[in-house]
Amino acid sequence: MVRCSALNCTVRTGQGVSFFRYPKDPSRRKVWIHNVKRKDFQPSKIAGLCERHFVDDDFKISRSFAESIGYELKELQLKESAVPTVFDYGTPAEDTQKRKHRRSSNATEKRRKLEEKKMRTFGTQTEVTAITEDTHLDESFSSFNDSFSDPNWLPEEDVSCDAQSYSDDITPAKERKFIVFESQLDLLFQRHCSYCGDLLQVVEKNVQGSGLFVTCQCTCGSKFQWESQPSSGTMPLGNLLLALLFSGSSPSHALNMLKHMSVASISDRTFFLMQKMYLVPTIESVFKTQQVDLIQDILIRNRPVRIGGDGRCCSPGHTAKFGSYTVMDLSSDKILDIQLVQSNEVANSHNMEIEGLLRSLTYLEEEGVEISHLVTDRHSQIKKYMREKRPDITHWFDVWHVAKGIYKKLVAAGKKKGCESVGEWARSVSNHLYWCASSSQGDGELVKEKWLSLLNHVTNVHEGHGDLYPRCEHDPTEDRLWLQRGRFVFESNAKVSPMNLNIGANE
Asked: Where is the THAP-type domain (predicted)?
């Protein structure tokens, strides 16, 4: 085993600690040997230093950063500009004396704290709390302000302070970020060389999207490199966070705002490229996993499911290129399947919705899912297919689509001269249809009688509707603008709503 060549370091290879051999470059090798500070020391070919003599900025990926993102890092890798700076130059005898003094001072400190605890009297020290070494300053000032608060005191200026404190457990995604001006950032690089003491000069600024990489060099040849953000391989993590915008905001708007602020960022092309590489595959993987679990739950229950489906196109009208069809389990309100159809795969864009439904039904039935009911809109091709090809599945129309169409027709009829009262009933008629569908437990005949009772209700007649629904169930109503049977407005209402409505399954 090889032992670390640093003074007072007992680390050897095979102890789970990374080792790094001395660089072959003469200038860098000279800096390493100088920092070790061993008299007449010339390292052999296998000599090296362990990771404990370097700071986190010297590694491409530090152990603390790898642990924060849940990545298991087996071996550390040094940057080309890394220089060892963490050493203990004391002699072993001095170290022994330091450890003895430390143990003695720790024991003395414990006795002092114990005496202070015994001498403390809670009755006389409720107003003033002494700040001891084991007391946090935040807690001390908090108790001080609580005891001496002045209700008339006002600050000299408006100060906004974020209470978030730094913690090693904060991941790069949740870590706070700040907007720093370049002129202020340059002040941080006015530092001296750790080898010769001369002032470092900035020789390169490399901007990669939102990341800034600064390289400083000294006259002695030593280099110092600084990164504005951690990286995953060669990609700054800030670029990844900008590309994975889960907020749903428009990338062009967000990136344009950063551009007007002169904040370094990624381009639109990079945004969509990184979404394609990282975000889309992640969402697809999660959806596939959840989809398998949902289907397994359905198979375990061993009973038919009631599903609802609807299509959506990329653009309105008859020129859409893509259409998606979504199927949902109505008992759990969870999505079971999504199918994407392109217009050139079918006869025209109007056929994309029926094609998406057929693909979803085929997929679910191949997985062993038994379907008892299907709820859709009144798409003509779907109605014909379900009536002729799939009579084994009960087909229902979504009441929302029906009510929306009736509401629009009543509003349009109410704009005609002499039919203003029809428009006053538009919202009530729409709500009545919702109530008919939700209160009839799937009985089509009962839904029909409740719906047709509207023709009597609008004329202030609330009994004698039919055998299944003889009278209205509402409380006594107040006077309102009732319609009169036989007049033009009543006939318009009758033609628009109940008489033209198809009620029941498999229509």
From this structure: 1-87
Q: What span, in angstroms and rounded, lies between the C-alpha atoms of 237 and 231? A: 5
CA distance 292 to 298: 10
Q: Between these two residues, 252 and 131, which has the higher pLDDT value?
A: 252
Summarised one tens digit per residue, pLDDT across range 329-380 is 999 999 999 999 999 999 988 899 999 999 999 999 999 999 999 999 989 9
| C-alpha span between 126 and 120 (Å, rounded) | 11
What percentage of residues in the chain have a pLDDT greater than 90?
Answer: 25
| Homologous superfamily of 303-397 | Ribonuclease H-like superfamily/Ribonuclease H (3.30.420.10)
Tokens 């002169």 belong to 262
Whether pLDDT at 92 is above 70: no
> pTM value?
0.53
Between CA 241 and CA 246 the distance in angstroms is: 10
> How many helices (H) and strands (E) are present in the chain, helices listed first?
17, 12
- Per-residue pLDDT tens digits for 407-462: 998 888 888 887 888 888 889 999 999 899 889 887 888 988 998 898 888 888 89
Q: CA-to-CA distance for 507 and 504, rounded, in angstroms?
A: 7
- Tokens (6 digits) for 284: 């697809």
Angle (deg, nearest 10), helices 444-452 and 426-438:
160
For residues 50 and 17, the answer to whether their CB atoms sit within 8 Å is yes
- Whose structure tokens read 């370049």? 182
User: Around 359, how many Cα atoms within 13 Å sit in the side-chain half-sphere?
Assistant: 20
Amino acid at 345: E
Q: Are 49 and 4 in contact (CB under 8 A)?
A: yes
Burial (CB count <10 Å: 0-12, 13-18, 19+), residue 66: middle
**DSSP structure string for 47-110:** -EEEGGGS-GGGBSS-HHHHHHTT----S--B-TT--------S-HHHHHHHHHHHHHHHHHHH
The H or E element that residue 235 is part of is strand 235-236
Q: How many residues are listed for the chain in this entry?
A: 507
Q: Which of 377, 405, 367, 417 is nearest to 507 (CA)?
A: 377
| Bridge partner residues of 201 (DSSP) | 217
Could you read off the pLDDT of 95-150 as tens digits, one per residue? 445 554 555 455 566 566 555 544 443 333 333 334 344 444 344 334 434 434 44
The Cβ of residue 345 has, within 10 Å, a number of other Cβ atoms equal to: 11
Q: Cα–Cα distance between 213 and 239 in angstroms, integer?
A: 14
- Domain range summary for the chain, segments of one domain joined by +: 1-86, 182-272, 303-397, 400-500
Question: What helix, strand, coil percent values describe the chain, rounded to 5?
Answer: 40, 15, 45
User: pLDDT per residue over 199-242, tens digit each?
Assistant: 888 888 889 888 899 998 888 888 888 889 888 888 888 888 88
